[in-house]
Amino acid sequence: MKSFKCIPHYIMLICLWTISIALQAQSRECPYCKGTGKIVKNISASQFGVRTEVKVKCRECDIYYFPSTGHTHIHCSHCRGTGRIGTTAKEPSSSMDEYNPESPLAVWGREVASTVRYGLPVSQQEDAAFKSFAQINPEGAKNYIAWRNILNATAVYYNRCAAMLTTTPVQDIDQIYLNAEKQLRQYSTGLNLPQELYTIANQLARQYYNSYISYRKYCADMINLQNIKERAIDWQLQQNLFY
Question: To which H or E segment does residue 45 belong?
Fold first, then answer.
């Protein structure tokens, strides 16, 4: 009788053992994170602005990186931080390793990405010319950076709105341009740049101005087109009313 009472326990153990084998067979090592449950997250965009950086070593993966790249480790989205594919683990709880889109680093990264895509990123020639200028005129270098940041931010605004097909009243576009020009004069007045940097600055100023003219023309054309469309609809309604 005792032996018969033990049978259900053996059956239960066998079932659990079978289920565990089945689960192991269904899951496999995540190929994206190599079973670690984490991946490297970098803000991979060319840095904007002139700065000197020194590589530092990551304590977690031993990779040397520039701080501006935003090197960090986050939970792998493919295996949800488990290191295994095919498991039903729950979403990992938030931690300092997770990427925070509202962090200062993330905000800065988005600004850098906008500059690379829509703005006026720094070239190697400008970087070299600026560094030489900064050694002989540190105060003038600060004014140049302030002038350039205004130039870049305004160009980013015009180009991004144009790329997204956003229509803005022409008077608002002109007001933004006038405000930017006022700030640009504030930092450029009395600023004597060396010839190479002066040539580059003129090229940047032309790109900034062209972005303003191009977006202004687009908005004016779209507004005129909308007015024509509305007049055509009004005319058609009038025709239908007196038909």
Answer: none
Amino acid making up residue 231:
R
Tell me how crowded residue 129 is: count the other CB atoms within 10 A of its CB: 21
Q: Which letter does DSSP use for residue 43 in this model? A: -
Structure tokens that stand for 57 in this block:
């070593």
Assess contact for 89 and 80: CB atoms under 8 A: yes
**Range 191-227 burial, b when 16+ CB lie within 10 A, else e:** bebeeebeebbeebbeebbebbeebbebbeeeeeeee
**Tens of pLDDT, residues 6-51:** 445 555 555 555 555 555 555 677 877 877 877 777 654 444 444 5
Query: Can you state the angle between helices 138-163 and 195-241, rounded to 10 degrees?
Result: 20
Q: At what angle do helices 170-188 and 195-241 cross, to 10 degrees?
A: 170
Distance CA 172, CA 159 (A): 15
pLDDT of res. 172: 93
The answer to whether the CB of 94 falls within 8 A of the CB of 136 is no
Angle between helices 195-241 and 124-136 (to 10 degrees): 130
Alpha-carbon span 162 to 118, nearest angstrom: 10
